[in-house]
Amino acid sequence: MSESAIKVENISKAYRIGLKEQRHDTLGATMAAWVKSPFQNFKRLKSLSNFNNHDDKDIFWALRNIDFQVSKGEVLGIIGKNGAGKSTLLKILSRITEPTTGKIEIYGRVASLLEVGTGFNPELTGRENVYLNGTILGMKKKEIDDKFDEIIDFSGVEKFLDTAVKRYSSGMKVRLAFAVAAHLDPEILVIDEVLAVGDAEFQSKCLGKMQDLSGKHGRTVLFVSHNMAAVKSLCTKAIVLENGKFVHEGSTDTAVDYYLRMNQHSGYVGTYNKQIDEGSGIASIALTDKFNESKTEFGFDEPVTIHIKVKIDEKDLNSHLGFRVVDINETVIFTSEIKISSFVKTKGLHEFEVKLPVRFLVPNKFKLTFGLHVPNKLMIDYLEECLYFEIVETGSDLHQYAGNDYGCVFVNCNWGIV
After folding, report:
1. Which of 132, 111, 112, 110 is nearest to 121 (CA)?
2. How many Cα atoms within 13 Å fall on the side-chain side of residue 134?
3. Which residues contact 290 (CB under 8 A, 6 or more apart)?
4. Element (DSSP H or E) covering residue 333
């Protein structure tokens, strides 16, 4: 039997929610409440550390009774929908937070990359943060010196090495953070979805580096991603979480298939409707064909039209409306977005129409996510994977375009003879 790198036994994590802040209109009322509060709230304060009552409405269980084992040199994929408990599990394994119940055994030094710029001081330069992060990971200065040039070369931020990290873009931060974590010889490397921040070229470098760490150097990797193609290419096995519970463990292919089947439910429909009484929001969405009929199955050479009704308050006229198309492997195919004020100048209910290119999406199943937001400030409405549709073959000459070998899209390039 192979040697273990991580053993997780009956791990659960609970958070106490619903504590309301009391507001008082006068100084006298505030002082009186302050004097009484130690006595009035004693029982409640005592219960904050008691999670034995699983039915307490103030308790949220982010994880419940998780058990698994990772062997040395194994690459484990952890997959699940948003809110399944993936990031909470990685934070526990990285010793950022403690489990409520259960036991964990970790054999080796852990390097974690759970969010952009993990462990970085924004006021320090990139060079200084390499040494700071390396020290946090338990490395001596000489060890960091020996790896420094390799780290910087991999990250591609040499030009900005002596610039404060607070001036880095998100992509630059994740490049440097990953380079440090991957090159300082951790026995266990923990990676969350942060690689999605980088460009395609850097993501490919990161996947190659993780394969190199596990294959050539026998390191253990825990990898969380919504990109099923990346999980399949990198991981040797995977586990699936749902609502904080362990629901499947097996080979990468069987785990991904289980996850995809689990998420092909009736929630993915051809239309969406919601009553917007106050404020701004997405009121309805529908997919229609060339006859303006609602449907979820379209031929490869059929047009697909998306109708989106949005209620906009005057204060939100500068917001953006957009959507993204995701395939069955959770790969984002493309994203499209507009600025509301470029089309309408008044508040109210407005309908937008989007026509997808004909003979563009290769026959496959797809999901749509919609968002109404003020860039970098406020998410007004967000509908994750709320619509489902499928592109099917519509002629004997089109069967060649179906399947992963032809990628996700069919591009009509300008061909000619010179």
Report:
1. 132
2. 23
3. 302, 303, 305
4. strand 332-339
Rounded to 5 degrees, φ, ψ at 399 are -60, -25
The answer to whether 186 touches 111, Cβ cutoff 8 Å, is yes
Which of 277, 273, 231 has the alpha carbon at shortest distance from 254?
231
Return all residues near 169 (Cβ < 8 A) that are at least 6 apart: none
**Calpha distance 90→88 (Å, rounded):** 5
Say if residues 154 and 183 touch (Cβ distance below 8 Å). yes
Give the pLDDT confidence of 152-185 residue by residue, as tens digits.
Answer: 998 888 899 999 988 988 778 888 888 887 787 7
- Write down the H helix ranges in 200-271: 200-215, 228-234, 252-262
Question: Helix H segments across 140-293?
Answer: 141-155, 170-183, 200-215, 228-234, 252-262
Residue 195's contacts (CB-CB under 8 Å, 6 or more residues apart) are 174, 178, 202, 203, 206, 207, 225, 230
- pLDDT confidence tier of residue 83, bands split at 50, 70 and 90: confident
Q: Chain-wide mean pLDDT for the chain?
A: 81
Q: Are 112 and 159 in contact (CB under 8 A)?
A: no
pTM across the whole model: 0.62
On whether the CB atoms of residues 238 and 256 are closer than 8 A, the answer is: yes
- The answer to whether 10 touches 97, Cβ cutoff 8 Å, is no
Q: Are 351 and 315 in contact (CB under 8 A)?
A: no
Q: Are 6 and 70 in contact (CB under 8 A)?
A: yes
Tokens coding 399: 């069967």
For the chain, the distance separating the N- and C-terminal CA atoms, rounded to the nearest angstrom, is: 63
Degrees (nearest 5) of the Cα angle 15, 91, 84? 65
**CB burial of residue 372 (10 Å; 0-12, 13-18, 19+):** buried
- The two structure tokens encoding residue 319: 């917001």
Collect all residues with Cβ–Cβ distance below 8 Å to 194 and sequence separation of at least 6.
113, 114, 115, 116, 118, 174, 177, 178
User: Sign of the CA dihedral 268, 326, 360, 365?
Assistant: negative
> Parallel, antiparallel, or unpaired for β 245-251 and 237-242?
antiparallel
Q: Distance between CA 159 and CA 176 in Å, rounded?
A: 12
Q: How far apart are CA 323 and CA 333, in angstroms?
A: 11
